[in-house]
Amino acid sequence: MDSIKKLTELFAKFPTIGQRTAGRFVSYLIGQNKQEMDELIKAIQELKNNVKLCSFCFNPYEADGTLCSICQNVSRDKQLLCIVEKEADLASIENTKKYSGLYFILGGMVTLRKIDGSNLRITELKDRIANGKFTEIIIALNPTPEGKSTSLLIEREIKELSTLKPLTFRLTHLAQGLPVGGELEYADEETLESAFEGRK
Amino acid sequence: MDSIKKLTELFAKFPTIGQRTAGRFVSYLIGQNKQEMDELIKAIQELKNNVKLCSFCFNPYEADGTLCSICQNVSRDKQLLCIVEKEADLASIENTKKYSGLYFILGGMVTLRKIDGSNLRITELKDRIANGKFTEIIIALNPTPEGKSTSLLIEREIKELSTLKPLTFRLTHLAQGLPVGGELEYADEETLESAFEGRK
Amino acid sequence: MDSIKKLTELFAKFPTIGQRTAGRFVSYLIGQNKQEMDELIKAIQELKNNVKLCSFCFNPYEADGTLCSICQNVSRDKQLLCIVEKEADLASIENTKKYSGLYFILGGMVTLRKIDGSNLRITELKDRIANGKFTEIIIALNPTPEGKSTSLLIEREIKELSTLKPLTFRLTHLAQGLPVGGELEYADEETLESAFEGRK
Amino acid sequence: MDSIKKLTELFAKFPTIGQRTAGRFVSYLIGQNKQEMDELIKAIQELKNNVKLCSFCFNPYEADGTLCSICQNVSRDKQLLCIVEKEADLASIENTKKYSGLYFILGGMVTLRKIDGSNLRITELKDRIANGKFTEIIIALNPTPEGKSTSLLIEREIKELSTLKPLTFRLTHLAQGLPVGGELEYADEETLESAFEGRK
Fold first, then answer.
1. Which B residues, 57 through 96, put their C-beta within 8 Å of a C-beta on chain C?
2. I need a labelling partner for A13 at 20 to 30 A (CA). Which of A95, B62, C132, C160 fits?
3. What is the C-alpha separation between B89 and B72, in angstroms, rounded?
């Protein structure tokens, strides 16, 4: 296959990118000079060589050592653990600056094809919990069908741990309700229900 | 002014309708036969003549008596009061079938132009509360800036009542958080914050 | 049926309006005072009583006489006839101020259900053409499947006229091509084809 | 700068890509294994090494020789030249399968910052025309303000050629008008004007 087609095909696998935009990416690169293309190649190579996954939370990082900057940070609260699907969710939560505990990146969701969670880091999660001293574990998954199935699976797995030693933490979930700026009139029924049920 | 222009102008004041759609409404009516136009005229006339506002909650209704069907319903819980902005919000909440108390339609929101709430039914609300035996009053306003200002105003007014007699009800608000189907990655910061703060 | 439901149902038949917006219209009217509702009722009544269809082109109007203001206008070019589907299309063309001839409103399109054009003013159109002295007849229908089927039907019917007397006019169609502000890259194939075929 | 930031920055320069999507691209790559990253690196390297611009029309290609597959194709009509802004436009026109002549990629548009066309291949275009035997030259630029300014500039430059030798080709433009599926009622005024002016 020629390189234009090959590269278009690879770009079309990028998240949210279709065939047409992939083609525009290739056109864009063709319009760049050799030096600019080398810069891109080099950046991908360095990503490949330098980025590691944190040995505790699986967050990608590229410093020395085996822990990411959050897990290394002595001022973070080691008694809180927040379970997220992927690093983009971790980044969103960090942006709010309202959470100062640790994270654990699950690496995916239960899907119709992988209903047993074999694509998730369940074993590692149980290991972190068994060896930690958490007072609260927050399940911060999307309030989507996949997120809810995943949440149920995790809860079951975590509860199994209690057969080994008594669990001393609270297990919490993010609040569901009306989003900021939302309107009752246009809210879907289920959101309005959870806003009512969670009132306080 | 001729009737085409006049009617276009009146339709253009309907919510969400601009000049162009108003014009299409008039074209549509011109295309109707006389009998169909009479039917529309009659329906508006009956609306004008028959619809009353409930003497307790201000919900429009057209039965006999002075109370709407909700306020008349003996099986509704008279110890719960839910304050909403407008009847469309009441209808949304009724749709969820999760609330069985009474309502009070405030009739608007605090706006930048009417910052004192003089366009709202504050006096009537205080009267209902002073004469009721509520155990919970739910402020169910949109989590928008207007909704929050209105909420603050209502809370202050309600607390003033306590100088007359001790208040025995809880004052609650709908939960804010991630809407059903939402995603952490795309949630705005403030929504994610409230989802975190309201976790349980 | 009560008047709220009845009126909601009638508004939901308005073009582009669904059940929910129809409900908002009714709420809006309930919020109006009696005088404002009377104003709306009166405007619809006057529309019903005063608006006539032009005896030549079927454009709605409400002056004295049997012709609309365009057909009455002595400075319009009586040798040009522009066939449109509906008055909104006539209004769009008038807005461009580039056409100074007469119009004929066909009153609809060929549809899958009415494939014979029995819902259109074909007879009246043929009458206007047979009795006119046109040098050009412009078929100004939407370049949609319905518009194209309708166009074919009209052309066939117009050509039948030539068995009675020789036709002396040109039959033209609006140009198809790239819309102003459009982009080749995103144009659909058929539009780009017609832009190519119509190049000059 | 670390490689995550660096690569995010480079992806954010891709057409239509913002900071957030660029970040998702990087996350996606981190989730790939080394072999998949190598495949991407290799494809970009081959693009850099193999892709040339056609010595006649500037279309990128990667075969042997100095001409792209279109310019090499003996069955293409060498008397037709179609001037386009960029290869995506060429690809769109090829998709219609209605044009069998040659192309010339201008490499950009007149912009407010480059009003003199110094960023365009004007010299090369004049060279191709002076040395060709064209019967028609089609200016196939977007009907946008930039496209129209560019079109004017090209026409002026082409006409200058006639001081050297008599020009024997027609200079044409793509048709402007209603796009397929468009509606008169919603067409912008200028599009409707050109549909009227170009009627036939």
1. 60, 62, 86-88, 91
2. A95
3. 19
State whether residue C25 sits within 8 Å of chain B by CB: yes
ipTM (interface predicted TM): 0.85
Instruction: Find the closest chain A residue to D46 by CA distance.
Output: A3
Question: Which chains, if any, share at least 3 CB pairs under 8 A with chain C?
Answer: B, D
Provide the token pair at C145. 């499947």
Task: Indicate the SS3 state at residue C17.
Answer: coil
Which architecture, in CATH terms, is B68-197? 3-Layer(aba) Sandwich (3.40)
Domain C3-50's class?
mainly alpha
DSSP C135-177: SEEEE---SSHHHHHHHHHHHHHHHHHTTTS---SEEEEPPBS
Alpha-carbon torsion (B128, B130, B133, B139), positive or negative: positive
Asked, colleague to colleague, whether B3-50 and B68-197 share their fold, the answer is no
Domain boundaries, chain A: 3-50, 72-197
CATH of A72-197, one of 1.10.287.630, 3.20.20.70, 3.40.1360.10, 1.20.120.450: 3.40.1360.10
Min CA distance, C134 vs chain B (Å)? 28
Q: What span, in angstroms and rounded, lies between the C-alpha atoms of C64 and D121?
A: 64
- CA of B166 vs chain C CAs: smallest distance (Å): 35
Q: Does domain D66-197 have CATH number 3.40.50.300?
A: no
In the stretch 92-121 of chain B, residues with CB closer than 8 A to chain A read 92-93, 95-96, 98-99
CATH 3.40.50.300 fits domain C60-197: no
Q: What contacts B29, CB < 8 A, 6 or more positions away?
A: B7, B37, B40, C44, C47
Report the predicted TM-score, pTM, of the whole model to 2 decimal places: 0.76
Question: Within an 8 Å CB–CB cutoff, is residue C19 touching chain B?
Answer: no
Per-residue pLDDT of chain C (200 residues; tens, 9 = 90+): 688 999 999 999 999 999 989 999 999 999 888 999 999 999 999 999 999 999 999 999 988 889 999 999 999 999 999 999 999 899 999 999 999 999 999 999 998 887 888 889 999 999 999 999 999 999 999 999 999 999 999 999 998 888 877 878 999 999 999 999 999 999 999 999 999 999 98
CB D150 within 8 Å of CB D110: yes
